[in-house]
Amino acid sequence: MISVLLVDDEKLALEYLENIIDWESYGFQLVGVTTDPERALDIYRRYRPELVISDVKMPIMSGLELVDAIREYGGNSHILFLSAYKNFDYVKQAIRLNIDDYILKSDLDENVFLKKIMKLKNVIEKEKAKSSYTVNLIFKELFEKNTSEENYRILLDEDDYLKIYKSYYYLIFAQRVVPRFISSYISQKTVPISSYGYLLTDICKKNETEKVWAVSSFDISENEYLVILNMGGSHAGEKEIAENIYYYARNVFRDLEKETKNQFFLYYYGHKSSLKQFGRFYHENKNQLSQRYLKKETQVLELGTEPELLIQQEKVPSSVTSEDLYRMIKQENRERMEQYFCTVRDSIQKEDYVTYLWYIKSIFEAFCMFEGFLTGVQSDRRFSIMEGSSSYDLGNPEELEKFVEAKLEEIWFLQGEGKEKSYSATITNAIKYIRAHYGEEECTLSSVAKHVHISISWLSTKFKEEVGIGVNDFINSVRIENAKKLFEQGDYMVYEVSEKVGFTSSQYFSKIFKEVTGLTPNKYRKRLMDSKDQT
To answer: Which of 66, 121, 124, 347 has CB 3.0 to 4.6 Å from 355, enough for a Cys bridge?
Structure first.
């Protein structure tokens, strides 16, 4: 809504002006309607209307004097003058005061008037958008860099300059995401929170009241978004303020859940502080935001009020190291590893993020010691942390724990291939056939079953039982291992390698390659070239 002040000393003329159009339906809000220019100035100081429509010739204070006082006060509102007379002197003074437009009362009808104010509305909305964009950028810099507000004096008008000095209240939208360290091992497809910016801002705007409204909003990390809130009513006590902020946050969260089920936590901060003060508070309490990963459901939380988290931060987890875990896994110490996973499962139930993170990170580091080195003697399968991860929702801590247990079993399975255990003659024959014919498009579950003279369903069951993965997954893993060798041996194009290892399309090849290795073929080639250049 564009706020408007109407001023005319003639009561009938003012009533006509007030009723000439349906103001609200065209996007305007009348904040003042008065015949007294001095009263108009008081209204202006209180509401700072974006558009002032005033008669030029009035007793006590003319329209020109009114605008002059507005400009002296620092107001940069748009002005539309009305006059019963053509007077060139008025026009010259109006130009000096940066008046937008001028209508003779004799020409005033609904169409002429509507055309004038809709043109001004368009100008005002563009200015507001530009101003809002500038203020948002400055707010973001103040939050991130803790710079001095004085640096922005020349860029802003008085109103916006005062905004960056004020104290506010805050909301933080935080996406449900996997722990950051996992992306070092398994590439994560996450939509950056900035892509949700319009939705989050729109939901906040829809829930604004006379008591709470949004001033600015911007992303503060890849998956966290800050909304700055202002409050009306200077006489409200701390308890009332906290309740108003909480109810506003709860309503916003309710609408957010309808749009993005179980994707965002919402943190609120109901203590008035400057943006720079809040920035420091945010960095001191970031661990609380990380803790959200272990919460089963998204919810509204108060930032900085989880005392159990402070106890966790002071606690030093067990001294188990990744090297210890590597030895346990290598020795297939199932009893010790089960104790380890009991601790992980217990930390999930207690929402003990510090212990959970310590243990999960340590086991990933232990797995990394097997990556590229452990290969099954009989299957020739090479252990990869990434392989099979797409079957699990790693954003769910229980699913991540199950994935880790599955990878552990995979390591023990591959280690077991070097012992006395061997595959049945049928499965050994199937593996030999796949390794000999993987480069042919016809190398499929059906062709393998036909070669070893058993049904497709029986081969699927038997192969998974003995080798640990399905036939199609095994065929793909053999193809990808050979694709990697081709990239290492020569400067092949992606489509050439795709054809050589038996894929029907380079797009499907790229999809499977990334699922297995965590990289697209092009990124894998680039990494190889960079490595050769460094060598």
So the answer is: 347
| Pair 139, 161: CB distance under 8 Å | no
- Parallel, antiparallel or unpaired: strands 167-175 and 224-231: antiparallel
Terminal C-alpha separation, the chain: 64
Q: Is 59 helix (H, G, I), strand (E, B) or coil?
A: coil
216 C-beta neighbours (distance < 10 Å), count: 22
Of residues 143, 148, 199, the one with CA closest to residue 170:
143
pLDDT in tens, 343-389: 999 988 888 888 888 899 999 999 999 987 888 877 777 888 888 78
Rounded to whole angstroms, the Cα distance separating 147 from 134 reads: 16
Structure-token match 């950028």, residue found:
137
For CA atoms 361, 364, 366, 368, give the dihedral sign.
negative
- Going by their DSSP bridges, the two strands 167-175 and 264-274 should be labelled as antiparallel
Query: DSSP string of 235-294?
Result: T--HHHHHHHHHHHHHHHHHHHHHHSTT-EEEEEEEEEEEHHHHHHHHHHTHHHHHGGGG
Instruction: Give the H or E element holding residue 185.
Output: none
pLDDT digits (tens, 9 = 90+) for 225-253: 999 999 876 566 788 888 899 999 999 99
Phi, psi of 268 (to 5 degrees): -120, 150
Sign of CA dihedral 13, 16, 21, 23: positive
